[in-house]
Amino acid sequence: MAALRICTSTGPGEPKRSNLASSPVQLGPDFIGFSSSLLPVGVGYVGDHRRVGSAVVTCRGFFADNVRRKRRPRASLKNSSVCSLGGDGSRESTLCVSVPSETSRYREVPTVLGQKIAQGIDGNPRASKEKEVKLWRRLPDGKKLGRHRASKHGLVKGRHSHKSVVKDDDANAILSCITLESSIEECNSALIHLEKHSDEKALNFFDWMKANGKLKGNADAYHLALQAIAWKEDWNMADLLLHEMVADSECALDARAFNGLIYVCAKRRLDDWGTKWFRMMLDREVQPNVSTVGMLMGLYQKTGNLSEAEFTFAKMRNCKIKCVNAYSAMITLYTRLGLFAKSEDAIVLMNNDGVVPNTENWLVRLNVYCQQGKTEEAELVMQSMVDEGFTLNVVAYNTLITGYGKSTNLQKAKKVFDSLGSAGLAPDETTYRSMVEGFGRADKYEEAISYYRRLKSAGFRPNASNFYTMINLLARHDDTKGAYEVLEDMRIAGCQCSSIVTVLVRAYGTAGRMHKVLPILKACLYKKILFDATSCSILVTAFVQKSLLEEALLILHEKKWKDSAFEENLYHMLICSCKEAGSYNDAVRIYNQMPKSGTHPNLRICCTMIDVFSMMERFADAETIYHELKASSSVLDMIAYSVIVRMYIKAERLEDACSVLAEMEKQKEIVPDKYLFLDMLRTYQKCGLLEKLSDTYYWILKSQVQCDEAMYNCIINCCGQAIPVDELSRIFDEMIQQGHLTNTVTLNVLLDIYGKAGLFTRAEKVFLMARKQGLVDIITYNTIIAAYAKSGNFRSMNYFVQRMQDAGFPVSLEAYNCMLDAYGKAGQLEEFAAVLQKMKRAKCKFDHYTYNIMLNIYGRRGWIEDVANVLAELKSRGVEPDLYSYNTLIKAYGIARMPEDAVKLMQEMRIKGISPDRVTYTNLIAALQRNENFLEAVKWSLWMKQTGVVGSGARA
Predict the structure, then answer these.
(1) Residue 532: CB partners within 8 Å, gap ≥ 6?
(2) SS3 for 75?
(3) What sign results for the dihedral spanned by CA atoms 337, 342, 344, 349?
(4) Residue 817 confidence class, pLDDT cut points 50, 70, 90
(5) What residues have CB less than 8 Å from 474, skipping those under 6 apart?
(6) Under a CB-based contact definition with an 8 Å cutoff, are residues 371 and 401 in contact?
(7) Is the dihedral of CA 798, 804, 805, 811 positive or negative?
């Protein structure tokens, strides 16, 4: 008989994905849930025992060689090749496929059929020309066939794969044993082998099985395919395959179908998908098993998904599943989140459910109480652990030491530490670290540093927590030498320079010894810090915050790194820090040391310094920086203009503020923010620029700035006189509808505007609103009284005067003046006199306005004697007449036909330095004309034109 020998060169492959089964010969459901025997170490061909005398074995499937082999050259199937190991340890590979013998009494399955099946599965054509193969026969003396030595190789982990690489020829060799007549068990065996090494080839073979009717009722094949699809994370295909499994192949869904998917999610921490498959499992009324719950709870423990963990835990208990790992995961999650009460509840539930703890669960329980410092409960747990026959390991002792440390019971912690030797255990790094943390938390400096040094002498390295604890202890106990030691240990451990500096400044800053930081660093890390921009910035910022400006400036002067952008940001941060702390002089010193560019100054730093100088009222210095910015190539933005405008407002130079705003408005791309708009409104109001106020208001509407309470109040207060009354009412109504609160000033402005416009119904509504909100003050009453007085509504005027008194306010001088003016102009002199008598009884001190009203009323009637009395009373009180008084007197002398006295008043005004206005000249000219002094009137008229007096002047 002849045999066809195919020599395969085996190349490097990838290792198999590790299986969760602990034994390679385990049968039945494993951790994943597959019900199939796992592939053993050795795999060989199952021979055709119908041909006993044949020297060639025909492949019918796979067998598991579970027998421990002796240490001698042996043959096995490796990557679909018959491998034998020679005496020198080299691996040789021979793939044997039977061919029909001339004397064959039984018809064998043609090799060509196996080749076609393999070709249809993996898509790779295989050479089958007879002229390209050689026939070999086994020698009569029993010697083995001549063979081609294969290259020695091992399994190599792929970069993106979890499978071992299988060559096409090796896969084809496996598939060549499969025919259309092969049983489902044989196909599943091949599928198992392919799935262990290549998802792609396994899925291709699965498709072939589907096409050839090998999947009917074959749940095991679907489980393997689902596992392969899960590793590819093709979740949509997995969903379709689950549907096909039930609908087409009439397989029942069970936990194993979903466990393969959940297993991959657990391995890759895909908690969203793990949750989805579990919810689908429940929706399809599939009963989860211990493996399902264990994998999900482990996944949620890793990702910290508490809500889903609680849901899964509740479902587990409802299903009467007892998974000890699920209880451990639940307890661990609660403990990690500090929910210790719930952790203890989970322990009680576990006891009530009759679940027997394992070693891990005992340790988890122990940790719950130790993290809270409940040492008595922790001791009971340890005793129970011993009583149940569990051997205490070093983890248990470490956990108990941590608990004693948290409860500051350091004597017991030391006792446990010393008892490790008698228990046959040696302290590990966690033991020492816990001792350092415990004594450090209790501020036991000597003991903490002793265990810290024992930790190092035992060959272990401190962790970050140990470093932090020791640095804080050193800072509190002012141990400079110890600080050198710990900082050096941190450097050796690979801690970044910036991290070391951060820990150091935080510890010494808290201990109030920040001044010790620089000497410590100069002894060990100073040179390295000077070359590290991040470390320098951390150190300098800490010094500035602790008002150690000299140290900060020294480091800035000696630094070795060069990064202009980083340096500017650092200086800006330092200046802002000083500004927020109110240390304006420190900010100026930092600014003066900063390297400056005359052509490209830093806009943000300049704006901050303008603000700082404004707060210091050093407006000249602030303006100097502004001019430097204008002279440079810097382009001012909205923030810069806002700062500059605020500087001029604070300096009470409103005209300069207006000029800056005009300059800003030329740059069309700049849109002010809410705060700049507020500054603009207040500036224009103080300057009386009604047109600018109107333009700014409509600019606010156009820019769609979100109006808040402050913006609404400012618009009403400032723009009340500049925009139409209807628009003002609209803004006010909008403000109320949006729930914003008004203030007293806003309501008083509205009262004044509505009163002057004669809208008394609206005015009274505003007044009622002010009363309800408790915002009525004396100005509110003065405003509404003045409105009714000006309109001649004496009844309403007197009504609100009475309301003013009822509200507990005395009638103000302003209210009396309004009443005097109203009665006097209306010619009701009796009421006028009565008001004067009330003012005298109330002992009101007359002001300029009161005397001017009296002068005006008496002068209109030509009562010069009364005018003279008022003027004498005015002077007797040490009050000199103002411009309005002189204008009124000149008019009164004109009416009384006393033009010479009117001219004398003009001369008196010049002597007192009071500049006449247009009303003054008008009244004088009218007085001269009334007394037929036309030539003199013409002279004064020409003089008025020559002096350029065109203003509206004061009221006559």
Answers:
(1) 497, 498, 561
(2) strand
(3) negative
(4) confident
(5) 480, 482, 483, 486, 507
(6) no
(7) negative
